[in-house]
Amino acid sequence: MSGSLELDDQAASAKSPPSSISMGSVRSAFDIARTQNRSLLVGYLPAGFPSIEASARAAEAMVAAGVDVVEIGLPYSDPVMDGPVIQEAVDHALRDGVRTRDVLALAGRVAATGAPTLVMTYWNPVERYSPAQFARDLAAAGGAGAITPDLIPEEAGEWVAAAQHEGLDTVFLVAPSSPDVRIRAVAAATTGFVYAASTMGVTGARTQVGTAAQGLVERVRTLTEVPIAVGLGVSTPEQAAEVAQWADGVIVGSAFVRLLLDAPSQDAGVAAVGELAAALAQAVRGARR
Hints:
Order of helices and strands: HHEHEHHEHHEHEEHEHEHEHH
């Protein structure tokens, strides 16, 4: 496909040695933010929208502007957790022919910035690719791990083992409806951070962060020492600053994607993403001062 970033055969078959909280890992990023008495900023973009090259430049712009950890979304035909903004972008990427290997290579390019880079993926593409092979190729590319929103801990044994073998971080989700037993299971399977969904529903910008979000974070914190990042509905610097006062991490996705969708050109979209990332980073860093 035109403009794709392919892993070469040697890189695809190479193994990265496992390491615990090494430089560039998700947990090390949280540790650094903690020493600075601030929350960490996580930015999401889907791979391949508006193009492979533009999505790479947009992610690089986010990092240059102050995003600490990057999520690269793997395009999937049935993104049940995603709202209309991300669905539109993902559909565009799929129609352009973006595939799993392109996503892995893109994650490697973004990781070269020094920011820990996670792949956000539904389980079906990983299962079809082979969990062990996906973990090997992601580690070889330089990725830090994966967020698997539709994979529950009770069914994640194969992925957890593969990720652990390659030194990758695992990230699982909790929601306001999650009972304590589920939160404990999620925390036990998570090595990166617990992804706390601020509301029941799909991704997308909202006028306010879900009122249950802070209570969920407080409840999770009594059950685990794993860092907790809040996503779904955070889109403005004001919302990010609010969440940063009580969460270890703030996740922003749809707001970045909307800028790319609305931009008159790819260059304009990349610039807009960088500008929003800078405003969000400033808000997050100043929230506890």
